[in-house]
Structure prediction request, 351 residues.
Amino acid sequence: MRKILASFLILSGLISFGQNSTIEDLWMIYDSHDFKSVISKAKPLLENDTNNLDLNLVLGRAYTEQGDFTDAVPYLEFTVKNDIYNSSRKAWALGYLGTCYFMLQKYDDSEKSLNECIRLNSTKNATNNAYANSLLFGFHEFYENWEIVETDNFRFHFQNMNAAEIVKYTSVREQAYKEINGFFKSTLPKKIDFYVWNSKDDAKRILGADLGFSKPNFCIVHTHYQQTIGHEMTHVISNYTSEITNKTRFINEGTAVCFDQSNQDRLKLVKDWISTNNKPVAVKDYWAMGEKYAEEILYRLSGLFVKELIDNFGKDKFLEFFKNQTYEYGKFVFGDKLDTVIQEFEIKINT
Ligand SMILES: [Zn+2]
Prediction:
């Protein structure tokens, strides 16, 4: 009997070891961002082991990362309901539910999930992540007196603006959205949550970041009320024009600047900067090492250059190139003429 029990224990140990290593493998694939493989491997396993919380969690998270929020919800909810030990699984499931509900525009459910995750306080990273999202999504008590105004394509949040100004502010942005998306033809997963701050200091204190910025994955913009109409919304809209495999700062920021709807004379500003600093610019350096250069010159230069690309190659080719924003892919899409355009552009700005 003892022998049988012992071999049974060894066997069940092997089975659970097998399961654990399978779960570990799935998380390794998850960490490599191959969410499609995670889903295709985890689904058949779940069919034979429907109550397995690890499998439910990894599936829910993989679907969320892929942007399939509706598909993610049942797996995450199952994990929350059935994790009777309130382990880190429940915490992560609640955090991811917070994201899914936000993206599905179920704002109350999103807030509840994030708060429950924060109250649970079971895993530091999950708690911090939920807290950061609750700040970003406008659920923190700091936003209690903000005014929310919904339009066709936005859900605006105003820190402090009077009714007449709000009418003007929102209609100008709706118009800009239509113009900008007339170019990109994107389908966004939800309205843009557009947070309009009066105080840059408040934003810095609450969000720990300088205004303005966008989080395209969440369709979120945080902006100061005086910032340009189009820059941040272009980041969000352009993110959904097609699947983007490679963003570069030079092209991504250049695109947002090009569509910012300000009437800055960028050519003059760039030429002035070059002569003041006595530093002629080489486009390919800025393109390859965008992170290295200051906003002051990189934004204006890249905005001018993106306009040059669109004027020379047209919208369709530009959008094809936008998926992979490197010089190498640019050569593939635009051909050798790209080098001529760069040369002529450099002559125009450096002399
Ligand atoms: Zn930007």
User: Anything to note?
Assistant: The pocket of zinc ion is lined by residues 231, 235, 253, 256 (CB under 6 Å). The CA atoms of residues 157 and 270 lie 35 Å apart. The domain at 143-241 is CATH 3.40.30.160 (Glutaredoxin). The chain has three domains: 16-139, 143-241, 252-350.
